[in-house]
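Q: Got a minute? One more chain.
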Amino acid sequence: MCGLAGVFRDPAGGRSELEQLAGRMADQLVHRGPDDRGVWCDEQAGIALGFRRLSIIDLSENGHQPMRSASGRFTAVFNGEIYNYVELGRELSDSGARFRGHSDTEVMLAAFERWGVEAAIRRFIGMFAIAVWDHDSRCLHLVRDRLGIKPLFVLAQPGLIAFGSELKALFVVPGFDRELDARALGEYLRYLYVPAPRTIFRNVTKLLPGHILTIRDPRAPLPESVPYWSVERVVHSSGAEASSLSVEEAVLEGERLLQDAVRLRMRADVPVGAFLSGGIDSSTVVALMQACSPRPVKTYTIGFDDGEYDEAPRAARVAEHLGTDHTEILLTAQAALDLVPQMADTFDEPFADPSQIPTYLVCRESRRAVTVALSGDGGDEIFGGYNRYIAGQHLLRRAARVPSGVRRLVAAGVTAVSPDRWDQIYGALAPVLPRRARQRLAGEKLHKIGFLLRQSGVPGMYRSLLSAWQDPAAVADVGEADGVAERILAEGNGLSLLDRMMLCDQLSYLPDDLLAKVDRASMAVSLEVRLPLLDHRVVEFSWRAPRELKVRNGEGKWLLRRVLDRYVPRELVERPKMGFSVPIDRWLRGELRGWAEDLLAADELRRSGLLRPEPIRQTWERFQAGKTRDGLRLWAVLMFQAWHRRWIG
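A: Always. Here it is, folded:
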């Protein structure tokens, strides 16, 4: 796990200038790789690669990057891990390859020489962003892993292509244009992140997951990237196989794949631990780790001083049952306040998922004892765990059949009652409701339904469920969203509504919110986080297995639960879904209020030239008066303001 950067430009200019630029870019990423630094350049070709290393596998000099292949054809920098490097190395050795050390980077380069770049990548099990220069064909290949676990940003300027693991690596490129993309800002205010391939800057793109970008001439327009793997292709090709497995066969196959995914991700030459929330996903990962570990696995969880959000007691009970070496970390409002100023440095593109704070904290604290941590992230998206999958698909279908005028009347009635009042009503009814009907934050969810009912069709309704600001154009000078979610939901292509909802999340929310959050928070403290539930073989299996094994009888992640049943008593993990949420409303009315007031002053809101102060100030004042629960919307504005002050202002 490391940080890479590089530049490919018109060969004019000296070697020293090229090396220094690649070095400065890499040095912006020292937090991603504090253990080693490397720079390589080919002056005649105009290519330079920079690298910062976090040593995980083969801690010796034999793992130094940039690294050149044995024949000299390829030179590469590589961020991530190829987990099946041992098996690939053995196969390559049988074909005559010889290795100086035992790093996965050396195996990767040997695979490129033996099979070619794209064919080799198809054989990799892992997470990776790769920049590889082919000396024979004089071209640069940029590669991103299938699910988008590792990031790769690309800047295109006249006569120059630059790239890096984070945006901040590009900021030192001479002439870097920091003009903002107004459409990207609109998507950010709606979704709390900027969906790929856009970034907040007009001249920078994110390489899409599962894509290869091949550049032969830096003076030509940036070519289109090409997919070598696509979850859309997986979805559409899996239909013929979806009914071929029985329930028992599917559970056994799922367990086998998960066991192997966990086993491979425990390979390291440094200490390994895990995050444990006590939920289905992390408990499954930790249970499988502990089953193949000769000693107690080190586990970490975040606790809150607000019982409504605190999962720590559940996690402690699961840890005790499994026999892990468990650490609980308390996140108070004051600790959050102390961390907030760091968020704009850590997330160098506007990012407003509030769970960024506990994610950063659990990464920082676990890094004191381990260098690698396994996480259960991805289980909801892959196995159907979100409430919007379970109840949302029924709600959307039924709502779409109701005349729009009636929907708007119902929406007006729902939103006329405050979320707090709905919580009081729901609290009085909760004792007589079935367990599955019990929900946290009922008032907030009812207001979401109210906004949903105002939409004209299913795509708009689902987008409403995902939106912080329902109408970003009301608070900023932005364009309308036109991303992958809109396309998938509108096209249909014969998929069920549940499949379309899950596919949307796997293509956008998963890489651009959840995985971006984990990558930036973990790498800010030089921790490698591995995600066994996002092994591409597990993802392919999840689409190949019968659909009813995801959501069954109103229960999400049904198959994953049956795997976990073999290791943990059901009563330890069964509870209403919480998610990795934080008490953001309480914090913004309390300890974070002064910080927020400063950023939301009218003059500060005008500074970017894109935000409209009046509606934002009105939202803030109503929120402080206790009339709304708009903390998430305000958090989006605050994170943009903090980012703008740090990187633009």
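A: The chain has a mean pLDDT of 90.
Q: Perfect, thanks.
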